[in-house]
Amino acid sequence: MNISIILAAGEGTRMKSKLPKVLHRVCGKPILEYVINASKGAEIEKNIVIVGHGGDSIREYFKDDSVIFKTQPIGDNTPYGTGFAVMQGIDCIEDDSTVIILYGDTPLITKDTVSKLINYHNSCGYDGTVLTAVVENPTGYGRIIREETGNILKIVEHKDASEEEKEIKEINSGIYCFNGKLLKYALGKIDNNNAQGEYYVTDVISILKEEDYKVGAYIIEDSREIHGVNSRNQLAFSEEIMRNRINSNYMKQGITIINPEHTYIEEGVKIGRDTIIYPGVIIEGNTEIGEDCVIKQNTKILNSIIGDKVEIESSTIEDSSIGDSTHIGPYAHLRPNSRIGKNVKIGNFVEVKNSIIEDNSKAGHLAYIGDAEVGKNVNIGCGVVFVNYNGREKFRTIVGDDAFIGSNSNLVAPVIVKELGYVAAGSTITKEVGEGVLSIARAPQVNKEGWVEKKGYKNHK
């Protein structure tokens, strides 16, 4: 059995935040979620997360039966260190298991790296394996000292390294793979007789080496994967790398992203091939976008389903669906539970909320459509308002197929405009408009001759 122990108990004081460090988000997901997903993606059967500070919030977010939470005690007299944290999961480790130790603040780690480390550890017959990286500037990191055979001789901390050892660029990532039985054995032998008074996992490597167990090292291909998040600056670095990684994957699938550096797409969004995405676009949550769409600048889409050949320009779409060949925007807003049909036009400054608009209908500009059912081939003129709220309750408006709603009209719900019903411009409709009926609901126009001269306004130019 493969087991992961993910250390997520750190306070994260440098984040200067009330939120636990591992719940801060990178491309829409908590940092810890990426680590858990990498572990699960590597087909690790048992995932143990060690929590401490903010543990209740972390447990509340990850309501997942496949994750086992263990709490690291917190207090003035409680020892600390990576070794002590790993000890909290010791009762979940089987003797015949392979255990990988990961960190909850390294969101860039991938399932491929986790798999490769475990496979390397097992295929080479190591009792302990360190994930290492080769970096240009190793200052501050523990150096990997190897034997002639390539096995690890020792890990030397930077402050203890000789000048020759400081020239070594292979460093300790802090991620390890162990035989389960030997890990438990070595954890029982480590102590905190050091300057910090802490228990370190690094000491497990030393103990195994001293007792002639076989200890190896696997060099990671991309050293950025071991980047930890301890500050807002490091969070921004991880965000940039993850965003570029996600966008690169979409482009490999046949999606055009004109400027990847200025396009934000969360992992898990589905996008069809030959869709074009312009700069400034934000796509979040459980969104699905079809093929041959054009998503133009400064559009935001959240938890929505977009059909094929849809064009959206500078608009906001929330928890809604849009049918094929529909045009949205610019500056339109689809609020939650809007269902837009095929070949529909929702134009400039049109807001739709909790409404159905069926195929081939149009609302070209400056309209509010709330709590409505609009049929096919309906024309909604400029300045139309679906008056859905009386101050206490919301009511629905129904507009039948082929109806025409003239500009600057108010439809006061609950009200029905039947099929082929016509509403004259400037009307306020409070009663049903029958099939094929023209409804005019406005006061007669009154022209008062000589009014300007009587008021003395004539010379005020």
Structure, explained:
The chain has about 450 residues and is α/β, with parallel strands linked by helices. It folds into two domains: about 1-225, Spore Coat Polysaccharide Biosynthesis Protein SpsA, Chain A (Alpha-Beta Complex); about 230-440, UDP N-Acetylglucosamine Acyltransferase, domain 1, CATH 2.160.10.10. Helix content is about 20%, strand content about 30%. The protein has nine helices and 41 strands. The chain has an eleven-stranded parallel beta sheet, with helices on one face. It has a nine-stranded parallel beta sheet with strand order 14-17-20-23-26-29-32-35-38, with no helix packed on it. Helix 2 links the parallel strand 4 and strand 5 (about 65-70). Helix 1 packs across helix 4 (about 110-125) and helix 6 crosses helix 7 (about 200-210). The longest helix is centred in the middle third of the chain and has 21 residues, at about 230-250. It is elongated and about 105 Å long. The chain starts with a strand and ends in a 6-residue tail after the last helix. The model has no long low-confidence stretch (mean pLDDT about 95). It catalyses: alpha-D-glucosamine 1-phosphate + acetyl-CoA = N-acetyl-alpha-D-glucosamine 1-phosphate + CoA + H(+); N-acetyl-alpha-D-glucosamine 1-phosphate + UTP + H(+) = UDP-N-acetyl-alpha-D-glucosamine + diphosphate. InterPro entries: Bifunctional_GlmU, GlmU-like, GlmU_C_LbH, GMPPB_C, Hexapep, NTP_transferase_dom. Keywords: Acyltransferase, Cell shape, Cell wall biogenesis/degradation, Cytoplasm, Magnesium, Metal-binding, Multifunctional enzyme, Nucleotidyltransferase, Peptidoglycan synthesis, Repeat, Transferase. This is Bifunctional protein GlmU. Homotrimer.
